[in-house]
Design goal:
The complex is a heterodimer of chains A (139) and B (198). Chain A is an all-beta fold and 139 residues long. Chain A has no helices and twelve strands. Chain B has a domain of 137 residues: lipopolysaccharide transport protein A fold (Sandwich), CATH 2.60.450.10. Classes of the chains: A mainly beta (139), B alpha+beta (198).
């Protein structure tokens, strides 16, 4: 089901900031894992998660993907989305949330198994037993 | 050899007398050497001679040892002196290198350092920088280098330039994980700033 996110836009060229309680970087292969109420923010997009693992691009100076797990919460001015896990493609601005996704937009509530959001355009695609609850009288 | 005029005779005599007098003059030269006065030398000496004599100092000391898990640690400093309370020693301008069997190296540098006999660790302070072979450059104010195992601990806020961004945190610890590789662990208000390049 096609979903429009008015508020969910992220400037994919903006700096990505990840804050957490602790970060472990393995010096042999360089994998970096943030743990302890991790917040990924880019522009006005906030993604909260329990742990986030950094996955690199070709050379080790570029971050390709951020794997958030352990209960993920995406928040913006008007929308909020919750799920068990999320994968955020930093370069393309694609965010895929999986596992009991619950999305609220104003009064409308939508749930499903998988929510793919393109933060560049702000459009999303929800699938997997999608159930929508529309409040009558809402726009 | 008789010359008819005075000039030639005079020259002939000069050819003999002058070299002889030169020889005589040179040979007595060393008799008139002045004595070097040690008191006066102190004024011109670059190094503070009095302090050097009074203090126990070791210039350019070098410590090298092997930790239990096989990492080589070498520490050099500009100068080191024992502490006044007799336990441990302090040193200035330290440079240290930690090389683990796995090939990981860390180059440490600091303006000041102390060897803490209790824990056997070397405590670096004052502009401590760490450069790791994995491309991390850390700057902090205090760093404890364990000498019995591969462990660096920075109890005070640390700022790290990593290959993919800058990381700031309250503390940092570098140790060997079970898998044998070194783990760089940041704790407390960890913040990574990453600028995506298109």
């Amino acid at each position: 089901q096609q979903v429009a996110f008015a508020g969910l836009r992220a400037d994919t060229a903006a700096a990505v900031e990840v804050s957490a309680d602790s970060l472990t970087v393995n010096q042999a292969d360089g994998t970096a894992v943030f743990t302890g109420n991790v917040v990924i923010s880019q522009g006005d997009m906030r993604l909260k998660a329990a742990t986030v693992e950094v996955e690199y691009g070709a050379d080790r100076t570029r971050i390709a993907r951020l794997h958030a797990s352990g209960g993920v919460m995406l928040a913006s001015a008007t929308e909020a989305a919750e799920a068990r896990e999320a994968v955020y493609e930093v370069t393309s601005g694609q965010l895929v949330m999986t596992g009991d996704v619950l999305m609220t937009q104003g009064e409308n509530v939508m749930s499903g198994q998988k929510l793919a959001v393109d933060l560049k355009t702000g459009t999303g695609q929800m699938d997997g037993r999608v159930r929508t609850i529309l409040q009558p009288g809402a726009n | 050899m008789h010359y008819d005029n005075r000039h030639s005779m005079l020259v002939a005599w000069a050819k003999v007398a002058l070299p002889l007098s030169a020889l005589a003059l040179l040979s007595v030269l060393f008799l008139f050497s002045g004595k070097a006065d040690p008191e006066m030398a102190q004024l011109y000496a670059k190094v503070d001679v009095a302090e050097l004599a009074r203090e126990q100092r070791m210039t350019a000391p070098e410590y090298s040892g092997m930790t239990e898990d096989g990492a080589a640690l070498t520490v050099t400093a500009a100068a080191a002196r024992p502490d006044t309370d007799g336990a441990g020693a302090s040193a200035a301008d330290l440079k240290a290198k930690l090389e683990t069997p796995g090939g990981f190296t860390a180059d440490l540098a600091a303006k000041a350092g102390r060897i803490d006999p209790g824990s056997g660790a070397i405590v670096l302070s004052d502009q401590v920088t760490v450069q790791t072979s994995s491309g991390y450059r850390l700057a902090t104010t205090k760093l404890e280098v364990a000498t019995d195992r591969t462990a660096l601990t920075a109890p005070e806020p640390v700022r790290a330039e990593g290959p993919f961004g800058t990381i700031t945190a309250d503390q940092m610890r570098l140790g060997t994980s079970e898998s044998g590789a070194q783990d760089l662990v940041f704790n407390g208000h960890v913040r990574l700033l990453y600028q995506p390049q298109e």
